[in-house]
Amino acid sequence: MAEAMGETALGLRERKKQRTRATLIDAAVTLCGRQGFDRTTVEQIAALAEVSPRTFSRYFATKDAIAMAMVDEILDRVAIELTGLPAELNPLDALLRAHIGVGLAAKAGAPGAIAVDRVMCVMGILLSSPTLRQSALHYRHAAIGAALGRRMGTDPGDRRLQLVTSVWSAVVMTALAELAAENENWSDVTIEDLIARIESVYADFTALAPGAREVV
């Protein structure tokens, strides 16, 4: 009985930690959407989440770390989408379909989907912070790497897998940069705009390098 009570207490503590972490991320999304990533501080995030800055530091070492946690949330969803796509799709087409799937689910408010404002907030953060943009470009998300590796029949260290993820990152960043240049306020950009621009940039890429879609 004592063992069962110990397991219950551990479960409660873990759930509390998960709730606190989620609350901190929610607070960061709210503040970044309202005033931008650069103007948002750790102290402000902690205050909105009703915890101390010290508590914040137990979950995230820096403000950049919480931003990358938001990126992680999206990439986790993309990885799930990837696993459900037909095996015959080439890796780049699969990445396109998976990202568009996440965007459409957000737009529709599907159960379990990431909210539209969260997706757009993360994209805005990546645009506003060169440091985070570089981190995202060089970041190799384990879940996506595993899903792509299974699709391509390779291991995570394979050069072809790295090339696919690098090319896809360039497609997304090009789409984001174009939208930012055309809109004075990122808040004016919609999820529909983002989806359409990613599709357009990818179409241009495949027209210039049609053989890239045959990566195996």
Provide structural commentary.
This is Bacterial regulatory s, tetR family protein. It is a single chain. By secondary structure, the protein is mainly alpha-helical. The protein has two domains: 1-60, Orthogonal Bundle (Arc Repressor Mutant, subunit A), CATH 1.10.10.60; 62-215, Tetracycline Repressor, domain 2 (Orthogonal Bundle), CATH 1.10.357.10. Helix content is 75%, strand content 0%. It contains ten helices and no strands. Helix 4 (63-83) packs across helix 5 (91-108), helix 6 packs across helix 7 and helix 7 runs antiparallel to helix 9. The radius of gyration is 19 Å and the shape is globular. The model has no long low-confidence stretch (mean pLDDT 88).
What layout of secondary structure does this protein have?
Blueprint lengths: L1 H34 L6 H7 L4 H7 L3 H21 L7 H18 L7 H13 L1 H9 L3 H11 L6 H24 L8 H18 L8
Give a short overview.
The chain has 216 residues and is mostly helical.
Distance between the termini: 55 Å
Low-confidence stretches: none
Instruction: Label the CATH architecture of the largest domain.
Output: Orthogonal Bundle
Fold-level CATH name of the largest domain:
Tetracycline Repressor, domain 2
Number of domains: 2
Number of contiguous helices: 10
Q: For this structure, what is the CATH class of the largest domain?
A: Mainly Alpha
Structural class: mainly alpha
Written as H for each helix and E for each strand, in order along the chain, the element string is: HHHHHHHHHH
Summarize model confidence as the mean pLDDT.
88
Total strand segments: 0
Domain HTH tetR-type: 18-78
Organism: Mycolicibacterium hassiacum (strain DSM 44199 / CIP 105218 / JCM 12690 / 3849) (Mycobacterium hassiacum)
DNA-binding region: 41-60
InterPro entries: DNA-bd_HTH_TetR-type_CS, Homeodomain-like_sf, HTH-type_TetR-like_transc_reg, HTH_TetR
